[in-house]
TrEMBL record:
<dbReference type="InterPro" id="IPR008824">
    <property type="entry name" value="RuvB-like_N"/>
</dbReference>
<dbReference type="InterPro" id="IPR036388">
    <property type="entry name" value="WH-like_DNA-bd_sf"/>
</dbReference>
<feature type="binding site">
    <location>
        <position position="72"/>
    </location>
    <ligand>
        <name>ATP</name>
    </ligand>
</feature>
<dbReference type="Pfam" id="PF17864">
    <property type="entry name" value="AAA_lid_4"/>
</dbReference>
<feature type="binding site">
    <location>
        <position position="30"/>
    </location>
    <ligand>
        <name>ATP</name>
    </ligand>
</feature>
<feature type="binding site">
    <location>
        <position position="228"/>
    </location>
    <ligand>
        <name>ATP</name>
    </ligand>
</feature>
<keyword id="KW-0547">Nucleotide-binding</keyword>
<dbReference type="InterPro" id="IPR036390">
    <property type="entry name" value="WH_DNA-bd_sf"/>
</dbReference>
<feature type="binding site">
    <location>
        <position position="320"/>
    </location>
    <ligand>
        <name>DNA</name>
    </ligand>
</feature>
<comment type="similarity">
    <text>Belongs to the RuvB family.</text>
</comment>
<keyword id="KW-0963">Cytoplasm</keyword>
<keyword id="KW-0238">DNA-binding</keyword>
<feature type="binding site">
    <location>
        <position position="31"/>
    </location>
    <ligand>
        <name>ATP</name>
    </ligand>
</feature>
<feature type="binding site">
    <location>
        <position position="76"/>
    </location>
    <ligand>
        <name>ATP</name>
    </ligand>
</feature>
<keyword id="KW-0227">DNA damage</keyword>
<comment type="subunit">
    <text>Homohexamer. Forms an RuvA(8)-RuvB(12)-Holliday junction (HJ) complex. HJ DNA is sandwiched between 2 RuvA tetramers; dsDNA enters through RuvA and exits via RuvB. An RuvB hexamer assembles on each DNA strand where it exits the tetramer. Each RuvB hexamer is contacted by two RuvA subunits (via domain III) on 2 adjacent RuvB subunits; this complex drives branch migration. In the full resolvosome a probable DNA-RuvA(4)-RuvB(12)-RuvC(2) complex forms which resolves the HJ.</text>
</comment>
<dbReference type="GO" id="GO:0004386">
    <property type="term" value="F:helicase activity"/>
</dbReference>
Amino acid sequence: MTWDETAPDGGTRLVGAEADGEDRAAEAALRPKDLAEFVGQSTVREQLDLVLRAARARGATADHVLLSGAPGLGKTTLSMIIAAEMNAPIRITSGPAIQHAGDLAAILSSLTEGEVLFLDEIHRMSRPAEEMLYMAMEDYRVDVIVGKGPGATAIPLELPPFTLVGATTRAGLLPPPLRDRFGFTGHMEFYTPEELGHVIRRSAGLLEVEVTEDGAGEIAGRSRGTPRIANRLLRRVRDYAQVKADGVVTREAALRALEVYEVDERGLDRLDRAVLTALLKLFGGGPVGLSTLAVAVGEERETVEEVAEPFLVRQGLLARTPRGRVATPAAWQHLGLVPPPSPDRGGQTGLFGA
């Protein structure tokens, strides 16, 4: 099960990596069109460039590509670039939309030669569709079952050569037979602040927004290593600068705008800080069980575990231990609080259970 990064009021979190309708519309205008224009992911970009160049030189379709990584890092953008580099059309669908083998058969049977099929969240596809995809990827053939019971007949259907680009946020959930059929696998890493600064300046140019170097740097530092979040913050700071300032995205405008939107200097929002505050003030830094912590912040257990914790762990502010969640010294420092005098709180084992 996956959980959307939604705010308590039901809207998308400003620093959530999931895309909403506004993000999709904005991303369509801001997406790079080729690998040379794509910012970041230097290793994946170089490897993919070799794969695509070799395929073009052979006059063949490119190998199937699997892209893994957190939401918002550019997997959809890369799939579109693959199609553009191969001068081929692209068809976009997702794993949750394919719940029956017949759904997949309908899509595959309508592909043209060389077409790119982008399958987002491929790990959420149904098992019967997965098994049909094995043969389609390897032999460019599917067996369509007609009828039921003893009278059922398998009709083989030949497919034109195509390139499947699968995207997943959880590569470990893919069954090995499916994972092994991809000719190239690329893992998308989080971006550095310098790379995000480049993304922001490029997007500002496309949006016709004037942004200073330190303004772009301030937004980049709060973007959680994710271009989608960087572009979303840029649009919100642009709004603030147009209404409250002279329309230029400066560092001062970024500071004031992101204070209004409750995004602090490390990219934490209200939910992140609520989790840390409860852990430190109510439970002395832990260890505390996940369910207890969720009740303390008034959120569902899954929301805390899937939405808030990953970034807090990645930032070194929270640790998951067998005894429960524990705050790190950096968490106390970030919230400006003084930790309890005893550095060893292991004696509290079981004090705040799950």
